[in-house]
Structures are given as C-alpha cells and as structure tokens.
Write a structure and sequence with these properties.
The structure holds two protein chains of two kinds.
Chain A: H1 3-19, H2 24-38, H3 44-49, H4 51-69
Helix pairs in contact in A: 1-2, 1-4, 2-4
Chain B: H1 7-36, H2 41-56, H3 61-78, H4 85-103, H5 109-131
Helix pairs in contact in B: 2-3, 2-5, 3-4, 4-5
Amino acid sequence: MNINELWGEAKGYKSQLDSGALTPAEFKDLISSLGIASNIKENADEFDKNIQIRGYLIDLLNFAETISSL
Amino acid sequence: MSKPPKRDERRKARENKRYPFKLIPVLFLSGCSLMIGNYDPLEYGLVNRIRTEAQISDCSKQSTYVIYVSALELKNYSQYLPNNDQEIALVDDLYKIVDQLYTFKSPSAAYCKAKLNIIETTAERIQQTTGNKPR
C-alpha cells in the first residue's frame, strides 16, 4: 500500500466515523492497522517525500487516540 | 646456476598470487545469497491461503476464526526459518491485524470489511516479498 492509497483508506474511515458506521474504537483500530500494514516507521523515507500527507496521517492517528479514550 | 623463468611461468606465478583476491567477490556474493534465504513454497502457500480466506470471508465469527487459525499457523511456521527476519516481521504484523479482528467484540460490518481489506493487502505484500526470493 503506497502513501496515496493509505491516505485514501484513512479518509474513507474518517467519513465512516462521521456517518456513524464506525465506532471510535473501531476507527482507532483501523488507523492503527493501517500503520502496521504500511510500516509507517520503517518507511519513513517514503513518507518524508510527502510531508503534508505524513502530517495529516499523524494528526489522524492522534485524533483516533483522543476520541477512543473519551 | 638456474635459468631465469620464462615469460609464461612468470605470468602463471603472478596469476597465482592474485588468485585469493579473485575469490573475494565470489565468497561475498555467495555469503549474501545465504543471508537472504530461499523461497519456501509452504510459507508462500500459507500466506496465499490467508489472502484468499480474507477475500471470501462473510465476516461471520466462524470465517474470522478460520483466518485466525491460518495466521497463527503461518506465524508458527515462519518463526524459526533461517535467514527469514524480514518475513518474520511481516508475518507478525499480519498476525496482529488478524488477531485484532478475531478478538474484537461485536464488530460492525463496516469495520469487518475494512479489516479484511487490510488483511488482504498485507498478505499480498508478503507474497510479493516471499515470491521474489531465489529458488
């Protein structure tokens, strides 16, 4: 999964969260799985090429952490 | 008094001196191939099974259990294969994702579908890695 596909998936999950199809816990789990699936840390170089998407994704991961702890 | 060596003999003597250095690239390359490890058809087959099960799963508890068993089998199988560090890490990641789906309490249809899609994509990525190993 390249970074654009990853971002597309993450945006899809966010829409499903907003519509109520996903619970916050499910959303967090899926975002975390995307991180595992794409080896975010290991592929830091690829992410550095697109710093904006990387920033959005980190924001989304933080958002997932926050809402699932509410 | 001995005769001076002929030209051919001098050339052979020079080549013999160089012989150990000629071996260095050969030894280096053979060492590298040993580090990668060979293609394992059983490992590839187990990954393929997980990918296929994720494609046909109907999100029932029974079908997620089937994927979980396959992922555990793959994890156990790959664990002690020599020179297989990269695949072991990928397989561990795949197992974690499958375990999360299997143990999630009352998953919604949207969650299950998304999770199965991630499992399928991750399995395909592992297939690309294991399928490219030397045979």
